[in-house]
Amino acid sequence: MPAFNAPPLPSDDKRWKIVNGTMRKNGFARHALIETLHTVQSSFGYLDDEAIRFVALSLHVPLSQAYGVVTFYHYFSLKPPGKHTMTICTGTACFIKGTDKLLAAAEKRLGIPQGQTTRDGKISLTTARCVGACGRAPVVLTDGEVHGLMTGDEMLAQLERWAVE
Amino acid sequence: MTIEELDQIAKSVRAESAKYDYEINVCMGTGCLSQHSDKLKEALATAVAAQGKRVLVRRTGCMGLCAAGPLVLADPDEILYQHVNESHAEAVVASLGSEPIAALQCELREHFDQQVHVVLENSGHIDPERIDDYISHDGYRGLLMALTDMTPNGVIHQVTESGLRGRGGGGYPTGLKWSTVAKASGDRKYVICNGDEGDPGAFMDRSVLESDPQRVIEGMAIAAYAVGASKGYIYVRAEYPLAVSRLTTCLRDARRRGLLGNNIGNTPFNFDIEIRLGAGAFVCGEETALIASIEGRRGSPRPRPPYPAVSGLWGKPTLINNVETFANIAPIIRKGGRWFAGIGSERSKGTKVFALTGKITHTGLVEVPMGIKLKEIIEVIGGGVPDGHKFKAVQTGGPSGGCLPAEMLDIGVSYDALIKVGSIMGSGGMIVMDDTSCMVNVARYFIEFCMTESCGKCIPCRAGTAQMHTLLTRICSGSGTMDDLDLLIELCDTVKSASLCGLGQTAPNPVLSTLRYFKDEYIEHIQHKRCPAGVCNMQPVAEVLA
After folding, report:
1. Among B90, B108, B126, which residue terminates a domain?
2. What angle do CA A89, B428, A149 make, to 5 degrees?
3. Residue A4's pLDDT is what?
4. Which of A22, B7, B172, B315 is deepest in the core (most CB within 10 A)?
C-alpha cells in the first residue's frame, strides 16, 4: 500500500465511519467514488458540499470530477429531503395509465414543482423513471414504499395525513 | 463442491419437503409485496400452526400475473389463488386437501398454457434466498458440468449452437461475443452483467434478479470459465432495493457453498462477483457508458471500436451481457445448445420474457417462444384491452422502439421481424395502448425521456432531441404547422445517423414509427387543432410560441 494520508472525518457523526468503511473496503480506489456517494446518500439522505469534498479528497478524485459525477446521475440529491417523500413513477406504463395527472394534482396540492420540498420541510415531491412495478401501474412511492393502482384521491389523502402530522 | 454433492443437497431438500403434506408458495416479488404479501405469509404460517397441518409456507419470487396479486400457489395440487389477503389465510390453509376455494381461484389456463418457461422456470417455485432450493432444481449443475467435462471452447460451442442472441435488445449473437472475448489477449478479463434496466415500463431483469438470482450468478460463472475471466460485476439499478438485497444474500451463500471463490468445483477455476449500483442514468445501459460508471466516472459512452470485448473495463477484455442472456446459459449447458435451438423461430432462438403492461387485462410478466404472434401475446395471454376500449397500438423496445398498430399484430415476435416493421425487440417492455392514448403525445413522452437522459456528449443527440421535443410540444398544443412536420422528419434522420451511441441513434424511432402508422393523428393536430384521443390540451402555450 502506498503511503496515504486520509483527511480527517468531517465531524464526530458516526455515519462518517460508515462512509469511511465503504472507501476502505474498496482500498480507497478512485473507482469507488459512486459506491461511496451511494453510502453517503443512504446514510445522510443527500450529498452536501462537505460530504462531496471529504469523499473526493479521500479518494484522490478532483473536486470537479466528483461534482460532475454527482450531478450526472439522477439518483443523487444535493438537497436534504423533506420529512416525507412522495415519489411518482413516470415510466411508460404509468404514463399510459395517467400518472401525469397524479403529478399535476400533487404539484397543485403542495404548491411546489416536482423535485422540491415544501417550505415547512415536511414533504418532498419527486418523480422516478420507473420502479419496475409496471404491472401495478400507476405507481406511487410513499417514503419508499410501493403503492400500485394509485388513485388521485388516495394520493391526496396521504399528502393530507402527512401535512397535519 | 462436486456434482455428487449437489445431488446430496438436492436429496436432503427433497427429504425435508417430504415431511410436509402440502406446500403454500406465496409470491413476494415487488408487485405482490406492494400489496403486503409479506404479512399474508405470516398470517398463513400462523394459520398453519393453529390448524396443526403439515404445511410448508414458502416465500417465492414472481409468479408473473401481477394484475391478480397477491398470488398464492398451493402444491401439490397446483391451485393458484389470486387477490389473497390476510383475512383469507385460514380458509386457504383449511382448504388444503379438500375443495379449493372457488371465489379466490385463478383459472387462467389460456394465460399460462401458451407460455414456455426457460428463464422463468424456477420463478414462483423456489425461495430466491435459499441456495439449496435452487440446487434442488438442477441449480449449479450446468456450471459443474462445464468445469469438469467441458473445455472453455466446448462451452462456447454449445452457446453458439444454441443460437442465443443478446436479450438486452441488440440481438448480437451471444456465442460470437463470447468467442471474441475468449480470443482477446490479456492477463485479466472481466464479465459484466448489465442489470441497468433503464427502459421505463420494463421489469424483466428486476423480476429475474428478485425471483431466481442464483441463475444469473451461475450463468456469469459459466461465461467467466468460457472466456477466461476471474472477476465479475453485476450492475444493478439502485431503484431495485429488493433485487440488490437478494443478490447480496445469494452471492454470500454461493461463496459459502464454494460455488464462487477459489477452486470452484475442485478445479483451478477462480471467480467472484461484486455488485455495483447504478445511479439512475438510462445511458448506462450502453456498454461503454456502463463501463465508465463501474470505473466511478460519469456514464458517457465512447466511440467503438475498440469494442469492450477487446478493451473494456480498465482497458481489459470484457464480456457484457444482459441479465436475461445470462439467465439462459445454465439450461443451455445442462440440456445442450441443440435443445435450445429447437425453441423459437428461424433466426431468433429460444424464448423471450416480456413485461406486459399498459391497457391490458392481465398485466405482468410472460415468457413466450420466439416467433409467437403479437396478437396471441396481447389477446390470448394478455386477455385483450379491458373496459370495452379499442386496441390502438403496442409499444415494444421502450424509448428505442416503436409503436405498432393493429394491422401489424400478425407478425411473429423476432429480432428481424420487429426491425422490419419499424420497432425493435428491445429488452422486453411491451406496453399496450388503447383509444384513450394520443400517439403524438406518446412520441413526445419518449422524446422528452431521451432529451432528459441524453448524456450531452454528442451534439446530434443533445440538441437534436431538444429540438424534436420543442416541435412535438408545438404540435401537441395546436400551434404546429406542416413545415414543423417536415422539419421533424429531417431531424429524425440527422439524429439517427449522426449520434454517437445507441441512445441517440434509436431516439427517433418512437417518432418515426408513429409517423409511419398514425400520421393522420399528427395531421389532425396540425390542421384541425384537434386531438382525436382528447389527451392534448390544444391551447397554444405562450412560451412555445415565443
Report:
1. B108
2. 30
3. 61
4. A22
Residues in chain B with pLDDT < 70?
540-546
Statement to judge: residues B336 and B462 lie in one domain: no
User: Where is B496: in which H helix or E strand?
Assistant: helix B482-498
Which pLDDT belongs to residue A7?
Answer: 87
pLDDT tens profile A56-112 = 999 999 999 999 999 999 999 999 999 999 999 999 999 999 999 999 999 999 999
CA distance B11 to chain A (A): 36
pLDDT computed for residue A135 by the predictor: 85
A-chain residues within 8 Å CB-CB of B446?
92
Q: Are strands B190-195 and B231-237 parallel, antiparallel or unpaired?
A: parallel
Q: How far apart are CA A125 and CA A81, in angstroms?
A: 9
ipTM of the complex: 0.92
Closest CA to A55 of A78, A72, A37: A37
Q: CB of B422 within 8 Å of any CB in chain A?
A: no
Residue of A nearest to B438 (CA): A96
d(CA B500, CA B457): 8
Nearest to B337 by CA among B177, B474, B162, B173: B162
What CATH number should be reported for the domain holding residue B415? 3.10.20.600
| A91, A153: one domain | yes
Q: Residue A1 has what pLDDT?
A: 46
Is residue A94 domain-shared with residue A137, that is, in the same domain?
A: yes
Is A61 within 8 Å of chain B by CB? yes
Answer yes or no: is A77 within a domain. Answer: no
Lookup: cell for B199: 427502459
Give per-residue pLDDT as tens, A100-144: 999 999 999 999 999 999 999 999 999 988 888 888 889 999 998
Instruction: Examine the domain organization and report whether B288 and B219 are in the same domain.
Output: yes
The count of CB pairs under 8 A between chains A and B is 144
| Same domain as A100, residue A50 | no
Let me know if residue B99 belongs to a domain: yes
Check CB contact of A65 with chain B, cutoff 8 Å: yes
User: Searching chain B, which residue's CA lies closest to the CA of residue A68?
Assistant: B298
Task: Indicate which of A25, A75, A90, A92 best probes the interface with B, i.e. most B CBs within 10 Å of its own CB.
Answer: A92
What would the pLDDT profile of B235-276 be if each residue is shown by its tens digit?
999 989 999 999 999 999 999 999 999 999 999 999 999 999
This prediction's pTM: 0.94
The pLDDT of residue A6 is 77
Q: Are residues A53 and A22 in the same domain?
A: yes
Q: Which SS3 state, helix, strand or coil, does residue B80 take? A: strand
Considering the domain boundaries, does residue B115 fall inside one?
Answer: no
Q: A45 with A111, same domain?
A: no
Number of domains comprising chain B: 4
Whether B202 and A134 lie within 8 Å, measured CB to CB: yes
Q: What is the pLDDT of residue B108?
A: 83
Number of folded domains that form chain A: 2
Taking an 8 Å cut-off on Cβ atoms, the answer to whether B281 and A146 are in contact is: no
Q: Answer whether A135 sits within 8 Å of B363, measured CB to CB.
A: yes
| B96: containing domain | 3-108
Q: How many CA atoms lie within 13 A of B328 on its CB side?
A: 29
Point out the residue among A34, A128, A145 whose CB comes nearest to the CB of B293. Answer: A34
Q: In this structure, are B152 and B269 located in the same domain? A: yes
Is the CB of A35 inside 8 Å of chain B's CB atoms?
yes
> Which of B30, B277, B299 is facing A146, going by the closest CB pair?
B30
Residue A70 CB partners (closer than 8 Å, separation 6+) = A37, A47, A52, A76, A78
- Please tell me whether residues A35 and A59 are part of one structural domain: yes
Q: Domain limits at A104?
A: 84-163
Q: Evaluate whether residue A114 is within a structural domain.
A: yes
Q: Does B473 reach chain A within 8 Å, measured CB to CB? A: no
| E-only strand ranges, B170-244 | 190-195, 231-237
